[in-house]
Amino acid sequence: MLLGPALAVSAVLFTIGVAGVLIRRNAIVIFMCVELMLNAVNLTFVALAQRLGVSGQIFVFFVMAVAAAEAAVGLAIILAIYRHRETVDLGKINLLKG
Amino acid sequence: MTLDLSLTRDLLTALLPELMLTGWALVLLVVVAWRHRTGGDLRVAGGIALAAFATTAAVVWWLWWNSAAAQGYAPMIAVDDFRFISDWLFLGTGALTVLLSMRYLEREALLAPEYYVLLLFSVLGMMLMGGGSDLMVVFLGLELMSVSVYVLAGINRKSPKAAEAALKYFLLGAFASAFLLYGIALVYGATGTTNLALIGAQVTSLHLEHGTLLLIGLALLLVGFAFKVAAVPFHMWAPDVYDGAPTPVTGFMATAVKAAAFAALFRVLGQAFATTVAWHQIVSALAVATMVGGNLVALAQRSLKRMLAYSSIAHAGYVLVAVAAGNASGSAAFLFYLVAYTLTTLAAFALLAVKGRGGESDVLIDDLSGLATERPWLAFALAVCMLSLLGFPGTAGFMGKWYILVAAAQSAQWWLAALLVLTSVVSAGYYLPVIMVMYMRPAPSAAAHADVRLGRLAGAAVTLAVVGLLFFGIRPNRLLDLSAAGAESLRTPTAAAVAPPGN
Amino acid sequence: MTTTIFWAFAAIAVGSALLCVTRRSPIASALWLVLTLFALAALFVILDAQFIAVLQVLVYAGAIMVLFLFVIMLLNLGRAGPSDRKGALAWAVAGALGAGLLVPLAGLARAAPPAAIQLPEGTMAALQQQQGLVGAVARPLFETYLVPFEITSLLLLAAIVGAVVLAKRKL
After folding, report:
1. Among C100, C37, C108, B185, which residue's Cα sits nearest to residue A8?
2. Would residue A94 count as lying in a domain?
3. Based on the structure, what is the number of domains in chain A?
4. In this complex, is the C-beta atom of B144 within 8 Å of any C-beta atom belonging to chain C?
5. Which ipTM was obtained for this model?
6. B137 with C151: Cβ contact below 8 A
7. CB C165 to CB B143 under 8 A?
């Protein structure tokens, strides 16, 4: 029930997340777009779990743990760069040449 | 020793290396909790990390010696030669990195012994990537490794460049992980399982080779892995990150992290998608782009660290050729090349760390002029590394490239073989100048290389690596047999190719 | 009925995701993302994943997003930077890549797992009836998926160590 629609919605959300990563410069917002991508994947897992067994729901559990770990480290890194540069704008952080 | 992984005792035996390393990491964490102020504390932490790598390697050896194998299919963790060999590679690289870091951390006043804790955690993640027989375990191992290495890249909190490198690495790494995860989700949707062997069995029994879910999932998986191994066009983060991170960490990232991603990629493609032909072309295309792109851009670099960064991208291309070959000799060449490449690159970054005092200071290739007269052994070691990267006969790098070439030829991938030779010739354009500058130009001043000194431990590590390079370059047979056995262990079809329980 | 509710929440999720990506102020982006997460939680309920929906609200919206907001406010980034969104070129590239991604992904709307491995309709609900909402997830988590579960504990430990090393003012 509603498998196809759920997969489609999750594909749309994932694409929005990818586009967001590409058009934003603020490191925190880029990271939020990545979180959006992870959530899109969660929707896929949950939709598939309905057809394939409860494993899919358990994967969502793991993804949440991964997201939490990434958030802790990522925000610490963002704090660290803010201390040096007083900005989290990737357009202004350019000591290293591309 | 046949292990029935559904029994707790046998499962624990199979996981013994990981458990051992976890135990050491926890011990080390407790130790550094109250000893983290002086250089002496750093040395204690480094010593514990070395002991951890050594004992874990011994445990892996014990499993290998008893020819441990899983009964039926392995649910979460594989018990095969491929896992043991890749574990040794990661543990050895970790141990060499500890040796190289000891003096560097003190010199740069990075009094954070948590460095070694994170190093242990990242190696643990790699072991799970190389040994996981379930996509979820591979993914979690990858995250464990990545999270630790993000922090290692930014461990120098005084350096804005290091913070920037950590930030770029983190954002791109998280982005890539999301692709990988989406791929896992779709493959799970296509096959109803995340176990690699069962995916392979389902693909054959249900004829899913051209299924939408499976193919899109596979493509997304490949994108995720391509980011992690820094294959062109997913490489743009690598030079900046390698440039900004502390040099021993850069060495670790360019070798162990990359090798772990390759090991996971190889296991996933070999076990789950052996019968799906679609990936051969994608991987070939990535290999072509990576070889050409990496080598051409490396030619233009003046900074030694950036040159090595692009060279490591180019080498990822050569390894991809071995993956694309997809035959038995390709598999053997794959592991052999990883070992050769790891030894060479690690030694090269170690030598760079010695020359680049102050950590951040860019070492230009011209800065090496006259090193051969002032520090003959150092120059010799660096020269051997460059020749091995170039693939000069008599070094492990040559043997590795040769085997990849043979594998590509055997699978009739003439284009790839020709490009490999051609780009290797191009790469002489940036490896040889380093040697020429060291041996043929006079030092700019008498004191130019006065402070270039390798510590005793780092010296031992570099000596070990260089001797290994020359040894495997002349007598590659043992290592090649070992890697052939490791690769072969992935190909043995699983007996229990049954539909998964729909719990 | 269920279908209508599904599409309503799907529309909220997509709409607020678009706003999250395009709003200039990071705070606004974060709050729109929270709304997306809530809408997703509602979708999870419709898809028979009630326990996961609760976790989604507690962990994602409740903990992770609060961490984001906390950092945004700590660094005083609430006001939008002038160059926060990239120029027309980046939008064009993002649009092209997004379309390039969406075209193959659109095939997913009609894709489904092979019939041979699909469980009969209503299996999930029956399982939850039998074992309870939490039990249905907990049992395999601590049996089949024990190894990955333990790995997540190490992952979180590594993340804590890393965050402390990077963010503490003085070690």
Report:
1. C108
2. no
3. 1
4. yes
5. 0.96
6. yes
7. no
